[in-house]
Here is the input.
Amino acid sequence: MSALPQPHASTSKSAVMGNPQLGPEPVFAYPTPTPEQVEEELPPGFEGDLVPLGPMLDRVVRRGYGELRGLAESTLPSISDRQKPQPIIQYARTTRQSILKYLAVLRWKAQVDVPIYAALNGNAAGTSPARTNGTGHPAASFPTPHSNNGSSDSPDVAAITGYGGNGKGKGRAMDDVIRGKITDAKRIEVFMGHQNAQHSAAVEHLRHTSKVVDGLRMRNPDLLTAMSVLSLGTYPRLPTELIDTFTPKPLLTNRLLLTTLRKLNRHIRFRLKCVDYVPSDLVILEIKDGRVYLQGEGGEWRAELTIINFGHALRGADGGEEQGRWWLTGVEWGWREKEEKGVDDPGGKGNNSTTRRRLDGEERKAVLDLANMEILPPRPVPDGGVGIGTGSGVPDLKAETVSGGEKKRVDAPLVRIHNFLQHLSLTYQLEVLHTQAMVLANGKWRGQLAVEMDRGKKVLTLRYWLRPRPPAPPPPPQSGPRRPAPPVPDSRTPLVGGILRIALLEDSKKRNEAESLLAEVGAGAEGIVPAERLLRMRLGVKWELGEIGEAPGGATADGWKVGNELNSAGLEIDPSQLSIADILTEATREHAVHLTRSHCAPLLTSARIGIFPNNPPTLVDTHAETSTRPLSMRVPLPGRQRSTAILVGISALTGLIEIEDEGAVPIGMEDRGKRAKMACGSVNEGKTRLGDDIGRLITAIITENIEGQMRALGHTPTRRLPLRSQDMAKADLHPASSIFLPLPNSANHHLVTRITGSGVVFEVLQLVKVQAENGAGWKLGIGERVGIDRGLIIAGAGVSGEAVLPQDKEGSAFELEEKHLRDVFIYSNALVAQSIIESQLKSRHIPYTLCLPSRAGPGAPKSRSPLAGLIPTFTVRSAYLLMARQTGARAEAGEVAMPRVWIQVGGWWKGGKCSAVTVVQLRHRPSTPTSGPSGSSATGTSATTKSDGITFDQASSVVKFHADDLDNCVKGFLEQWERLSKVIIVAGTVNKLNKLPLFKDVRMLSFDLRTATLEYAPGYLCEITYDSGTDGYVVSFGRTGPADAAAAGRAVQGVEENGAGEAVNPHEAMKGLLSWELNELVEGQKDVGVRFIGLLRATLPFLLESAPPGPQLVILSVRRYRLIWDIQSTRRFGVEFTLLPNNQSWVISDAAASPMNGVEADGRCGPLEEIRGFPDVVGSLWESLRGASEKKEVAALGGEAGEETKPDMRSGGGGSEMTAMKLDQGGSLWISGESGVVRDAIKGMVGGVGDILGDGK
Here is the structure.
């Protein structure tokens, strides 16, 4: 083989040379082929024998990795360290052997051809051309040795292909295939094998020829033969069968052909009418072109027959002569296979196809040969065939129909060909059905269809709805004589739902007289009967009920019992549309309909499933295109958005119960579909009953719908409680039918929604701590359970609490609108709040009464919600709730409230944590002025004020206590009431003082729970505030303006203004001392209001007169005051004014002298000097006060001054009321606390002392 590229064709001639082994003689010379010719004669390489090495390498690597992983994860960890080397060495050995084998194959691979399909001279960009090996896979990128360089070394591929490292092609011509040694050797091996086969064939042929030649003998020469050959040039005495084949026949002309065909047509018509018996099922379509066209009954097949040996007399089967015999020339099938698409196979496919499929090829030759050689040749007729009549077995001819009485039995080739073609057509149809059944068994009906074909008996058996047969139970032990055990079916034989058998059957249906007469008329010659019986065959279907196809409970209605043959009238096979799928579907759907009715009939009247009285479960038909269930029971389901249902039926494909939830179609409802599938599996396995599973599905769907509504409202429902499963089961609380919704008011209370047979039931459940059964520790248990009347909430309730459920609403017992669900939650939450308040009142032994709000009147609820009339209010007597035995406060605090106190649930309409509102109405309404006070510290009279969750309406004197902590609402109210009672006592005291003559001008101006504002003198205000931090009172003072006082019709005493021109109350400067004094009075004495208001009213004139300008005022206490004179900044003098405890009189004395009662002089004002002549000032002041008092008395009596009157012991020596009295031998002065007296005394004292100190005395 040359190393140069070999051309595909060579025009060089072979050189003639002698054979060196046989010598130089020309007879032994032979042409010597050129190398090009030898290359052409070698066969091409067989690329199909080559396989890619990539999968082999991938398999070697994966196998090594898999064994290594199994060694590291499974083998080595489970054995000891001493045994670990052995599996490691074994792994290394096997892996090394695999790699060495692959290396050997890789080296062989380097010796095969490498075809190059891409152009190598156009790679200017430096990209490598696509190279593949003989199998179409990419060639190896490493260099391989080839036969064209004659070296086993691996040359540089770049040097061969012209692709250097710089990516520039050299542009030279290359071979399309780089030849390899292995490929060349393979080609030579194939060539030599073919040559050896030719040599072996030649030797065998020579051996056969030598054997034949040995038997040949030349004929002995005779005179007659010699004369014929010499005279005629041939031998005319040879047999005709020897020379007929080699004798040329005269050519037929067109006229001769037409004449022959006409004669043949007439002869065929004659044979059919007068000679042959034509069966009645054989339809003669036409006779033309020397053929008769016949059709079988139903048009399932057509045949073309002619007569051979026409015009020649032949010896018949009965010894007589006949004119030719019948010959089959063609067959067409008229049946169709029902398919949407495909090609004709036998009989063609497609429902609208009008073409018939003709037999051709080997199939046609086999059928025609069998018919012409075995079926149509004449057969001998048995003797004694006279007067057979009906006893001959021919059902379509009668002996009475022919006059003469006797009939002749004749050969009937047309009957035989009819029987043959009819049988062949039905056999083909059966095979087509078998093929379709096998396709179904391996496709749509996989695992549910078993196909068997008995070709000997021509029976196709289909077993549908296959189930594995459970193992047979062991036989019970026999104590008596051993009896033969009944036959046990093979466990490998599956259980079936039904059996369909399609077989070739002979139609036993007898014809009526009209059909028999027509058949006799068309039978051809009269007075003859066929020697063969006409077989009217068809494909029949038998349907038998299987072991698992029986209805539940052993129902045998309409013959549906195991082993019975069912009515198969609807399973007729249509030859024009052959479809085993239609037959199987029709049978299984009818079977599924029967089982569906048997399973679902008891459920149609079940109260557990029929939850809608106006829309009960019904049986509905379904189309085969949309569902495998021909009949389904539709169970309506509740749904707010769309109407859904559960469909239950038997699948015609599997024979199993199918449960479909229509609501599982939308996205996000996959759990409903899975739940339905689980129910299907449970029912089909016999673990549960169908009715129970459907009931559970309905319950789960209703529960899921309500749970979804709760989540849409923003709640977080749950299906379990922190309880043991057995405890929940005892309480009839199951996670599948119960929803637990925590209530905001209490962590231990839950709204329970249960789905029962009568509808959706709501109740409030409380969890309590109970002791464990073993006595060790505590656990949660179920406490009080309160049912909720759903109808009461939906319809609303009045005073009587009656409600009416809407009866015309479909499914109202199992459907709930979101607004009603929200109302149920709100109402349940309010009930929990009510129970919490109720438990607190019970724990304190406080009697109470629950009452619902009235429909109309001031107590009617303002909300339009139907729940407003359902939330009760607690009514408690204030004597039990506010008295000292409950609160520890003063009895006066309870007296200021009305006899009843109301406790309401607040904020229930929000659906969150509720609050408690305690309503207390005060007995006394504050007497507020028509215009509000004005001043530096006066409080405004707003309609309502709030303080610490307490609201007070001054217009109605109603106090509302708002408690956010519902668990401690009663305790919190009592604590707030105890603090509030301090201020309420002030209001009550002022109202009492206002009724006394001495304090009739004292009025309560405002009251806002923390501060009581009162007017203790015309134009002078006092604000008393309770400070809960110090648990005491804080007093502040203010003034009403002159305009306000004038509007009130009162005079303002000594209006004092500050620097800004505002009216100032002089008590404001000593509010700290007054606050301390008030708290002291509250703690230790009674009549606090009289004493404190009397103190304010007694000190007010003094403070007004001692206001600047004048001596400096020093307040020592609420009852002691000093007026200080500073002379020349070195000397200080003072006069002390002391208010006696009865708040009705004052004592005036020198501040430097010893005070009364023997107490030492007070030095808080610094060193004071005695006022010289102070007794004289006292005397003159006493005289002036006495004279003024007498003048007032005389003026009151109507007399004149200086007249003698009756002396009065209370006066200073006269008959008038005593207003002043000297003490300490004239060193001190006692005066009454009247406003005018005090003012005159202060004026006289200031003037007298001023005169003394001003004169320098």
